[in-house]
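Propose amino acids for all 499 sites.
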């Protein structure tokens, strides 16, 4: 590495409205994945630091939850404006720590800010219900109450959007929040916390604790945390859900994916090929909504593979510092080796590597776009989440076979169909076993007013993320039954009211 650890800046924590570091904990070097060079260090917390952060959040939670809803949303709107003002810094830090090229980072910013805008509509989404005169002189109504202290464990692939997706809704609901970002991308969360304080968020309402599994397990076990949100791989999502639920918490844990894009013989070939390349290789394939499998139905396979391969050759791979780059590196050397091994195993098992991106020349952890044809469901490249720029092509004879593939797969995040036929599209959207469906849309991430989430092993827990379900997850319902008797006393009755 070109920098010695002693020369590196330190990313610490944010607790009680100020930066916290120098606690003598373990440190981890953060690399720029486009160069394989350490750019800073992150200080990893421990259970004692989690205790401090939870106590700080708990002390701030009640006053924040009692603050008028309009006052809370004014803080969130100010936060939105301050984030906009630091756009360039956030784009740069996402490029440096995660490897995101500029266009990708700007898209992540837009998505995160869209969710913050929905959070600012809390006045509409937190409304209760009322039923007057449910009995003589008796009214009943419901209201949504904050949970108290909530926590989120967010992934490396969306260092800005995922923390904002979760924290903005939780804060709008009146909760205090503890954020544990991926230890590989610590800086975006610290910037968010700093800007929230500048926007007027009271000290202690939003806290950031850096760390690895030790901090994760401390969050899951802590009795002072009411709810935990997680985004990451399926094995870890399963662990988070099981351990957090065992500790009595409300848990939503979003895991891995194997998103299928079904292409019917009547699809517009040029449009479809462009969509497949965009959806498979954006973010270097490191996103849970990436298309990793194209299912070619009928006789469309040869022409579709040729069209996709031709477009792949035009994708410009490079570092975030290159303004023309469309795709950046993988997050680490280990990720590059894992992706390369998956392609090698597929080729050894009889699949055809049409475009091979493993031989990309240059420093850093790059794998160029890769296309593998003649993939079958028994191959690991199909069965496992590769999480890299590898697009597999599976060929089937009918739409029924394509739907069976999706149904048999353990993941159920997203699925898409490309067709000109409305009947096929409608059948697909009703029958495909995935939580988010695209019709001629390759990555069907809904607008933030709708909730995000998959089925099967792509999600553990009963609530989706953001949107209306996000407001339900971060609140608990209270039902009030009230009577204001006109007389000073009422007759004694041991029976249920009958009128």
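Proposal:
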């Amino acid at each position: 590495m070109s920098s010695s650890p002693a020369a590196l800046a330190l990313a610490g924590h944010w607790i009680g409205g100020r930066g916290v570091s120098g606690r003598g904990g373990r440190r981890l070097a953060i690399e720029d994945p486009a160069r394989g060079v350490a750019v800073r260090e992150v200080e990893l917390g421990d259970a004692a630091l989690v205790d401090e952060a939870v106590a700080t959040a708990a002390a701030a939670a009640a006053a924040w939850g009692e603050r008028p809803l309009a006052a809370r949303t004014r803080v969130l709107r100010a936060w939105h404006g301050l984030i906009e003002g630091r756009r360039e810094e956030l784009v740069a830090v996402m490029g440096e720590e995660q490897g995101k090229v500029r266009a990708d980072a700007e898209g992540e910013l837009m998505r995160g800010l869209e969710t913050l805008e929905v959070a600012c509509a809390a006045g509409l989404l937190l409304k209760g219900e009322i039923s007057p005169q449910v009995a003589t002189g008796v009214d009943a109504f419901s209201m949504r109450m904050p949970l108290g202290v909530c926590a989120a464990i967010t992934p490396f692939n969306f260092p800005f959007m995922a923390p904002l997706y979760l924290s903005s809704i939780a804060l709008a609901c009146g909760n205090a929040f503890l954020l544990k970002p991926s230890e590989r991308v610590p800086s975006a969360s610290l910037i968010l916390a700093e800007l929230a304080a500048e926007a007027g968020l009271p000290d202690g309402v939003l806290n950031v604790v850096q760390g690895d599994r030790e901090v994760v397990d401390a969050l899951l076990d802590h009795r002072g945390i009411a709810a935990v949100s997680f985004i990451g791989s399926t094995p870890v999502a399963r662990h988070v859900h099981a351990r957090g639920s065992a500790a009595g918490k409300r848990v939503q844990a979003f895991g891995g994916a194997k998103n299928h894009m079904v292409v019917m013989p009547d699809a517009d070939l040029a449009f479809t090929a462009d969509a497949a390349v965009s959806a498979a290789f954006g973010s270097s394939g490191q996103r849970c909504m990436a298309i990793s499998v194209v299912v070619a139905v009928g006789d469309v396979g040869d022409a579709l593979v040729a069209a996709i391969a031709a477009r792949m050759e035009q994708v410009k791979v490079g570092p975030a510092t290159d303004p023309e780059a469309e795709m950046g590196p993988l997050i680490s050397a280990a990720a590059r080796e894992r992706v390369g091994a998956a392609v090698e195993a597929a080729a050894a098992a009889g699949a055809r590597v049409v475009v091979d991106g493993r031989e990309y020349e240059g420093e850093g952890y790059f794998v160029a776009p890769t296309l593998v044809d003649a993939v079958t469901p028994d191959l690991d490249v199909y069965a496992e989440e590769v999480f890299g720029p590898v697009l597999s092509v599976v060929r089937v004879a009918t739409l029924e076979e394509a739907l069976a593939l999706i149904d048999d797969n353990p993941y159920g995040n997203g699925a898409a169909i490309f067709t000109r036929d409305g009947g096929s599209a409608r059948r697909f959207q009703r029958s495909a076993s995935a939580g988010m469906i695209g019709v001629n849309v390759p990555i069907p991430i809904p607008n933030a007013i709708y909730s995000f989430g998959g089925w099967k092993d792509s999600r553990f827990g009963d609530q989706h993320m953001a949107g209306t379900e996000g407001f339900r997850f971060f609140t608990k319902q209270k039902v009030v039954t009230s009577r204001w008797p006109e007389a000073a006393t009422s007759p004694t009755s041991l029976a249920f009211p009958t009128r």
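The chain has a mean pLDDT of 95. The first helix runs from residue 47 to 66.
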